[in-house]
Amino acid sequence: MIGYVTLGTNDLQRGARFYDAIAAELGVGRMMDFESFIAWGVPGGAPGIGLTRPFDGKAATVGNGVMVALEAKDEDQVKRLYDIALSHGGTDEGAPGPRGEGFYAAYFRDPDGNKLNAFVAG
């Protein structure tokens, strides 16, 4: 079982503004907040997401083929998450829409280029 996923950042405060907005739409807040690491979610709840400056001091880079999927409650929330992402420094990777039978999703990148997806299945 996944407890949380951590993504790298080169500007923690910029990234924090992005993820604060995404987390607020999902109904969660920060569960950990340190000088070089912030995590959003509910302790003991569903998996969370963390953002950190790399421990080795080198620049954060994007993993090719890596994506974090955020489960939305409905198609309207998928659209809101996509809009929130773009209005907080994110970039488009695929507008909200159906992606096969019973799967509705939007794809975007955070300000550091990490790829995310908001989806609803069913």
TrEMBL record:
PROSITE patterns assigned to the protein according to its UniProt record, in alphabetical order: VOC
User: One matching Pfam family, short form?
Assistant: Glyoxalase
According to the entry, every stretch annotated as the VOC domain falls at 1-121
This chain belongs to which protein, by name?
VOC family protein
